[in-house]
Amino acid sequence: MSLCYRCSPAPFCLMLLLLLGSGCTDQPRVRESGTKYSSIPPLEQVAGEDRSPSRPGVPASRKTPMASEVRPHILINKTKRRLEFYRGKELVRAYDIGLGFSPNGDKVKEGDGKTPEGKYAIVVKNPKSKFYLSLGLNYPNRDDATGALMDGRITLEQFNAIDHALSNGKPPPWDTPLGGEIFIHGHGAHADWTRGCIALRDADVQELYAMVEIGTEVVILP
Predict the structure, then answer these.
(1) How far is CA 35 from the centre of its chain?
(2) Which of 3, 52, 87, 116 is the most buried (most CB within 10 A)?
(3) 75: containing domain
(4) Is the dihedral of CA 92, 93, 99, 103 positive or negative?
(5) Model confidence pLDDT, tens digit, residues 113-129
(6) Domain presence at residue 42
């Protein structure tokens, strides 16, 4: 016995199939090519980046530190007779030191027995130093040379020679009236006995020497 179209389940099934096939899903679809389709990928998968929002209990990805945040440097405090080696803001080592035989005040000339004050850099590593091991500083720096030029303690030619060496990352001339050859070296921190250098115990300078590279910044405080 035949059924009329109103009683037949076919129209109902057809409508149901049309609704199910109409693309009503949680994610839209885009055509890739021809008649093929694929869902749009979640935002956090785009270009391989993690763009997903942070969730409680799930740590966010750590930011890579900038070079300046981990750059090694040395801080010397003359008053405290202390040398500190840092990586970024982290204090790695601290050592007792000895200074020049006349330690108070900034170095201004050859033979004054004073340890300079200011911002310098390691420009020499000498594994055969007569003081065990040594790290040479780029004294005089531009501030030293500028002050000396204004005071008439060096000539314009000497200033230009110092400036040229510093601009090229080389040791400045050490034979001007300002003196030179200021090193961090060994043979003892028991007293202020050097001609302006910074002296450590041999075991300490050996450890520091291994950690320091050419270009390491050295700040010397009064």
Answers:
(1) 54
(2) 116
(3) 67-221
(4) positive
(5) 999 999 999 999 999 99
(6) no
